[in-house]
Amino acid sequence: xxxxxxxxxxxxxxxxxxxxxxKQGTVTSVNAAKQQVIVEGVRTIKKAIRRxxxxxDGGIEEQDGPIHxxxxxxx
Length: 75
Fold this sequence. Notes:
The structure is a single chain. The strands form 2 sheets. The chain has a 5-stranded antiparallel sheet with strand order 6-3-2-1-7, with no helix packed on it. The two termini are 28 Å apart. The relative contact order is 0.31. The protein has strands at 12-15, 24-31, 36-39, 44-49, 59-64, 66-68, 72-74. The protein has a single domain (12-74), classed as SH3 type barrels, CATH 2.30.30.30. Helices cover 0% and strands 45% of the residues. The chain is built from no helices and 7 strands. By secondary structure, the protein is mostly beta strands. The radius of gyration is 14 Å and the shape is globular.
């Protein structure tokens, strides 16, 4: 079953609630099942990366974290 959402990837949104209230950015992905969106430049988190062929040193990488879909609205 497909869940309808008020935003889709590529939409310009503003965060209306939570710690990142007032920040604005573009939606990069939507997970309708979990009701989460990832907004570019909002809620940057640090993630530990395991060593691999592509990344031989491993280390810590910054990436955008998910926000609940109810906390964003279209601009």
